[in-house]
Amino acid sequence: MATPPKPPGDENRLESVAKATATCAFCPSLCKHTCPVGTVTARESATPWAMMSVVDHLRTGRAELTDTLARTLYLCNGCRACTDFCVHHVDVEGALVEARAWAVERGVRVFPEQRFVHPDLTEDQGALREVRASERYEVRPVFSLFPGRATLEHTPQAVDELLSLADRLDVDALSCGSAAQHDTGYDLWFAGHHDAFLRQARSVVDAVSGAQDLVVMSPEALYMMKVVYPRYGLRIGAELLHTSEFLLPLLSGGVVERIPGRIGYHDSCHLARHLGIRDVPRQVLRRLLEEPPVELPLKGAETLCCGGTGCLTETRPDVAAAMAEEVVRWALEVGLERLVSFSPECVASLRDAAGSRLRVDHAVTLAAEAIVSDGASVV
Amino acid sequence: MSSRPHAVGYLDELRQIVPTEQIEPQLDGDEGGGSWAVEPATQVELVEVLRWANQRHAAVFTRHPRRSDAQPPFSRRPRIYLRGRRMKRVKDLDVVSGTITVQSGITMAELDELLGERSFTTGFPTRPWRQESLGAVLAAALDAHWGPRYGAMESEVVSLGVVFPDGTAAGGRGAPRRAVGPDFDRLFLGSRGRFGIIYEATLRIYPSAGRVALSYAAPDLATALATVHAGLLAGLDPRAVEIVTPAPDREWGKKRVGLTAQNPVLVLVEPWGPIAGRPVSWVDDHFAEKLVKLEPPVGWNVHEGLLPAPRAWTAPVVALSWRELEALAAELGGDVPAGLWLVRCSEHGGWLSVAAGIEGQAADTVRAALVAHSVQKPTMWKRIQDQLKAELDPKDILNPGLG
Amino acid sequence: MARVSQAELVRVLTGIVGADNLSTSRPDKVAYSADFWPRAQIWKLAGEVERYPPDCVVWPKDTAEITQILAYCHEHLIPVVPFGGGSGVCGGTVPIRGGVVIDVKRLRRVLAVDPVSLTVSAEAGINGQHIEDHLNAAGLTLGHFPSSIMCSTLGGWLAARSAGQFSSRYGKIEDMVLGLKVATPDGAVLDTAERAPGAPDWTQLIVGSEGTLGVITEAVLKVQPLPEARRLRAYRFRHLADGLKGARAVMQAGLRPIVLRLYDPFDSLMAFGKDPEQKTSPRTRPFDAIRSLLSSPSGGAHDDAPAKKVPGFLAKRLEPWSKKAKHAAITTALSAPTLLNRLAQAAPSPCLMIVGFEGPAEAIHADAIAADELLTACGGVDAGARLGESWLEHRYAVSFKQSRLYQLGAFVDTMEVATTWDRLETLYHGVRSALSPHVFIMAHFSHAYREGCSIYFTFAGYRKDAARLEQHYERVWQLATDAVVANGGTVSHHHGVGLSKMAAMPREHGEMLRVWRALKDAIDPHGVMNPGKLFPDTTEVAAGSAGGAARSMVRS
After folding, report:
1. In chain B, fewer beta carbons within 10 Å around the N or the C end?
2. Distance (Å) from the C-alpha of residue B1 to the closest C-alpha of chain C?
3. Cβ of C32 under 8 Å from any chain A Cβ?
């Protein structure tokens, strides 16, 4: 039940999600156990049922829009666990995005737009500067690496590692281009500041135009480009690939020194649920590890969100941290030595939570460790 | 019989309630308010006796008289010793639902016989408390060999009929399970007649065919426990499993069942029956593989030949988990005390006790474990129990002095 | 013991739990003003989103904080409503007198798992699915699968005597619990495992108290190893009586199926679809429409047809209908349900039974064969494994459906009653005939035991406006509970009492309620714990904001 977005300024914005919100408002909150925010906050008002009920009350006039009510709408982390569990597949994320946009339009801006704006990275900024200095920089490459803002911010070394991996595996074509300096506008979109989001999105579409293939490192960014942009009539011409999808075919050609230990894989929500990329990352890991990756009890489509997404780190950092802690606890419970993820957002939040208890890495780091060289050079 | 005028007056009043033949004078002190054993024959008579007792501030006991009863604090109060022997009517034998509703004065032996004639049995022990009334067994929550399928004694009761100390009767037919508040019947099960008199009970009944226990001998407790535990985890699903070592004075019984010095521990298993649970052959294969099979199989009356009479048991009966049982067995090693009694073995553990008067290191170890796992000191519940008593029996009529 | 102001209350409680864990904000008041009592849904239909808001909600982090809160409320006569998942359907957590809602969901740790003795110890606020996840990770299962498992908590299960779908094998929650801890209003924490010789089983005197005695904070429960194998099968019975006879035979032979459910003809039709040979007449259209709303998406009756998802094989036939026509057909049918109920009864549909076993593979193989013999002897016809498996797969799906009925302005509710086998059919017919003129009704028999079984009635009603709908709802419940009591059943098998069945309690318990009063006086003498619930004549609380309204909700 995906919700088609309404153009900004539409008075009936909420009517477009009426069916979804009414379904939730009269449902006995059957998805409650899937909601990581509801679980860590222990609050009824932070469950999908409660948030959707608020939207339904606002829609039907049973309640008036206030700052307090609007604030509730930001407790969703957009992990879609509820949607996946629901028999009706109610699009809670979509409905809440619409509701936030509706509130913002009415001037109820509990979180100012500025908090979600991530200005384009400039040359001087650390990670990007290094990338630009590398040989693998073209302004407008055809086979382009799009790390996404989160990757450059949280796991910049993964960008280097991926590029140098491409070197070792002799993949000439991949380069990083000027598009890398753009943010896809996920936060703006998610927080309901849609005017700004659309401006941002257009600039991204422009920047990547001309690319044939786009290797996207941040699952959040990939979700925006693949799923959200088209809802607003924005299309990216290039074929969109996730890092794992890019890596998998390359691995067969490389010489791999398999990594030992109890290493587990944390599915990013955007990757596993929004985009359905669940097997490819595992296949990549299986080729890198001595033992198959250890599965967490909540895995694949049922993965537990670590709080790295949904603007929670902006709006409720305490909740985001508690969610990450939950994932780390599971990892420690199943006796992991190392936890890897393909999402820079996940790696950042899990690293913060784990501290010295558990090593958390980007899966690309693992690949960089394991792949010694391309097969040809050894022979 | 006392000649004091108020005692005579009380007797006359009692005669208005129950026929004279149901009243038996008891030994009383000089200052006594009168002391009688009273046998109500109907629920109405029971109710009236309690009402009278309330009016006259009598002490009503559901136990045998004691010499000390004639001393203070009860000496000046009229004392009634209730006997249930005339209340043993079967109100309903529902073979469709598999329940019996019977008055509580019936003895366990009578109940067993009555059901046996119709090829039924209760989930209650058939031997150790044969002469006790059903009411007494329920009020004392006496533990016995109910197994995983029977559960504890309490779970055999579908519903109770009770009379409160002021003579109000309560209780219903019950249902297989309910969710209408706490299970109030439980207040009367095991509380030794503090809060009310159980006058009838609806119990679960079972087909009695095939109630034979298979018996095996084990060299030590650890082997016996391991075999039973493995069987339960493999889906043995029996009616009852027990582990017993005979009392030292029961040599004859020991010989009869076939226990030896090398294999002193008896393991009793009662399979469920022809249809449900693992078939007898499976049970036999499982146990005979590790233990020595004893022939012929024994019935549950085996207790009489092996264990001292129930009244001789002074150690508490304590629930121990498998983990705790295994630790105990490891501590004991090859040394197992006589008179050990582990009943109601389920997937979670069992109920352990040991006979009184057994000497030796092993018995001390078991007794230490019992003390460690039993609740002896007054708990936080004591205050609540006292308050319940004060509210339900403000005049302290019923079994006073129990604490 | 002076009344305290709201500000003072908030100040003191904030001192205990911290500002982050106390709320007086609107979203919280709305979210905690009701549980999933259908009547509260009707309030929502009427535009009232918070008829009974609490004065504040607190989220204590441990038992110590709970005892402090309780002691304070006890001293100042402030009503306290313990809150778990809020999934109750009887109004048990509606703060009808305002006061403090204590949400225990921060107490959500699994404290210990003992795989040798097969026990688990956990805090009361843990979500049902989460405790099951933890146990599964250790190769164990609780064996407790209420259809609310996703949205209910351990504490809530214990407070309301919950039953899972596998109760025939593993028992209800009261059969699983070995002991629990309860925080009482005087600030004490009682452990029911501390049963001294000569004392009653306190556990069973606390289980089912629905928050009226204290706050359950921890429990120790029996668990089971994850089963090696599981086997489900369906049987078809021509007559309901035959099916009941079969169910009884299975249970009394000592077999222990995980599940044994018998659907009455109409519920069979709803749950599993129509016999493919049967023709549909135009008259049964509303019927089909309701099926599409109510049924669980578990496929058709064809054994070899693949299980279809929403909304069953009738969906195609419904397509040509306009939405409006469908709406009209359903609401008309629901407002005059007699015809529909008659149609349902006349429909020559068989009764379906689901039987399942789990455990060691060879043991359940033998059990399944034994059950097959018994059921066949009673007239059952094997309908294959697929329907059984499909039931298992979609067993939670039906709960998702109710929301659609509310959207039409109708209500749907369920009543789970129980009695011994000898009265089961009488009870079934008694309730059916009492309700048939007023609501659309169907039933299935689940939670079978050796001596009896529970009947799960589902009924739906409609009135044009919400105020009349609420009156209608109330009347239906009055009739329903009267019929249950008159036919010798208990009015609740596992949903509990709350507000909805409170009026039936004097008849259910009779003088036994004295025990209740004594317990209440001993443990909660000021009557602050969940006042106005469970039993009608508990000590009234002087404080509180909605006393008058609360009284009006009590049916005489």
Report:
1. C
2. 33
3. yes
Note whether C407 contacts A26, CB cutoff 8 Å. yes
Pick from A1, A17, A19, A30 the residue to mutate for testing the C interface (most C CBs within 10 Å): A30
Q: Which residues form the domain of C433?
A: 406-493
Q: Mark whether C124 and C91 lie in a shared domain.
A: no
pLDDT lower than 50: segments of chain B: 1-3, 144-146
Do B and A make contact via 3 or more CB pairs under 8 A? The reply is no
> Which residues of chain C are within 8 Å of residue A62 when distances are taken between CB atoms?
44, 47-49
Clarify whether residues C220 and C147 are in a common domain.
yes
C112 contacts chain A (CB < 8 A): no
Q: How far apart are alpha carbons A93 and A51 in whole angstroms?
A: 10
The verdict on ipTM greater than 0.95 is no
Q: Is residue C477 part of a domain?
A: yes
- Residue A126's pLDDT band, with cuts at 50, 70 and 90, is low
The CATH number for C438's domain is 3.30.300.330
The topology (CATH level 3) of B4-82 is 3.30.43
- Tell me, yes or no, whether C310 lies in a domain: no
Q: Among B383, A224, B50, which Cα is nearest to C521's?
A: B383
Query: 3-class SS at B336?
Result: coil
Average the pLDDT over A209-235 and give the result. Answer: 92
C330 closest CA partner among C297, C280, C293: C293
- What phi, psi does C241 have (nearest 5°)? -60, -40
At position A137, the amino acid (one-letter code) is Y
pLDDT below 70 — which residues of chain C? 1-2, 273-323, 347-348, 537-556
Work out the minimum CA distance from B345 to partner chain C, whole angstroms: 11
DSSP C331: H
> Which residue of C108, C151, C405 is the best one to mutate when testing the A interface, meaning the one whose CB has the most A CBs within 10 A?
C151
User: Computed from CA positions of residues C236, C238, C241, C245, in that sequence, does the dihedral angle turn out positive or negative?
Assistant: negative
Domain annotation covers residue C313:
no
Number of CB atoms found within 10 A of residue A199's CB: 11
Which residues pair with residue B215 across a beta bridge?
B268, B294
First to last CA, chain A: 54
Q: How many domains does chain C have?
A: 4
Residues C211 and C234 in one domain: no
A–C CB contacts, 8 A cutoff, strictly below: 123
For chains B and C, CB pairs below 8 A equal 247
Interchain CB contact of C161 with B (< 8 Å): yes
Domain shared by C83 and C134, yes or no? no
Are both C455 and C523 inside the same structural domain? no
Q: What sign for the dihedral angle of Cα C331, C333, C338, C342?
A: negative
Class level of CATH domain B90-209: alpha beta
* Final residue in a domain of this structure, among C225, C245, C267: C225
Collect all residues of chain C within an 8 Å Cβ-Cβ radius of residue B204: 450-451
- The B residues from 29 to 58 touching C (CB cutoff 8 Å) are none
Residues C280 and C428 in one domain: no
Residues C92 and C130 occupy one common structural domain: no
Examine residue C478 and state whether it is found in any structural domain, yes or no: yes
C95 and C156 share a domain? no
The CATH number assigned to the domain holding C383 equals 3.40.462.40
- Chain A neighbors (3+ CB pairs < 8 Å): C
Tell me the C-alpha distance between B318 and C524, whole Å.
31
The closest CB to that of A86, out of C106, C133, C400, belongs to C400
